[in-house]
Design goal:
218 residues; alpha+beta; Endonuclease, Chain A; 2 domains; elongated
Length: 218
C-alpha cells in the first residue's frame, strides 16, 4: 500500500512510482492481483539491471515459448509477451535506461531457456563469432530424434551446451546428458560444454573454444 501516492518502502519491498502512461496493468490469472504486464516490467528494468546481458536475458524469458522437444514437440504454454510488445513499452514515454533498453531489444531472441544460455550466446556474438541457433533439435540420418541442444551451428555440427548444477546433481539428467553427447559424437557433432565458472570467470575460454571448433569443423 502506498502512502499519499508514494511508492511503498517496507522491509523486502522496493516500490517504484511511474506515470500511468508508462505502465500497462493486468490482473494476474491465478492470484487476481493487479500487476504490471511483462513488457512494462521489462521496460522498468532498464534503469535497474547493472549488466546489459541481464536486460537481454529478461527479454528472452518474456518472449520464450517453452516447449518439450522431440519428434513431435509440444508447447507447454504461450510466451508472456512479444518483441513488438517490448518495443511498445519502451516507446510509451521517457524511460530510465532507455539507451540500454534499445540496445537490449535488438538482441532479444526467442528460445533461450535460461539467463545463462543468453549470456553464453552474447559472449559468443560479442567475440565476433556468428550467432548460433538457439534450442536446436538434432535428428540422425533416419530421422530419429537425438536430442535438443542449447546453441548450435547445425551446418558445422557444433553444439554449445550450458550445464547448470542440476546436470551434475540429478542422476537421470546426468545419464541423459551422457547418452545425448555420445549420440551427437557418433554423428560427427562437436560438443562444447560450458559451466557457470566459464561464463563469469573466464568468458574468453568460451569464445576461444567455439572459434577453434568452427575452424576444425570447416
Amino acid at each position: 500500500m502506498s502512502v499519499r501516492g508514494r511508492a511503498p518502502r517496507l522491509a523486502g519491498i522496493h516500490g517504484h512510482q511511474i506515470a500511468d502512461s508508462l505502465a500497462r496493468v493486468v490482473t494476474h490469472p491465478e492470484h487476481g492481483l493487479r500487476v504490471a504486464d511483462p513488457a512494462t516490467t521489462w521496460a522498468m528494468l532498464g534503469g535497474m539491471l547493472r549488466h546489459p546481458y541481464d536486460l537481454v536475458a529478461a527479454g528472452d524469458a518474456i518472449v520464450r515459448t517453452p516447449r518439450i522437444p522431440g519428434p513431435t514437440p509440444r508447447i507447454e504454454r504461450d510466451a508472456w509477451g512479444t518483441v513488438a510488445e517490448l518495443d511498445v513499452a519502451l516507446r510509451a514515454g521517457r524511460r530510465r535506461g532507455a539507451a540500454a533498453l534499445r540496445d537490449a531489444l535488438r538482441r532479444i531472441r526467442a528460445g533461450s531457456a535460461s539467463r545463462m544460455e543468453t549470456w553464453v550466446r552474447l559472449i559468443i556474438v560479442d567475440a565476433g563469432l556468428p550467432e548460433p541457433v538457439i534450442d536446436h533439435d538434432v535428428f540422425d540420418g533416419r530421422g530419429r530424434f537425438v536430442g535438443c541442444v542449447d546453441l548450435a551451428y547445425p551446418h558445422l555440427r557444433i553444439a554449445i551446451e550450458y550445464e547448470g548444477d542440476q546436470h551434475r546433481t540429478d542422476p537421470r539428467q546426468w545419464q541423459r546428458d551422457i547418452e545425448k553427447h555420445e549420440a551427437l559424437a557418433d554423428l560427427g557433432w562437436r560438443v562444447i560444454r560450458v559451466s557457470r565458472d566459464h561464463v563469469f570467470s573466464d568468458p574468453e575460454s568460451i569464445s576461444r573454444r567455439v572459434r577453434a571448433a568452427i575452424a576444425a569443423q570447416r
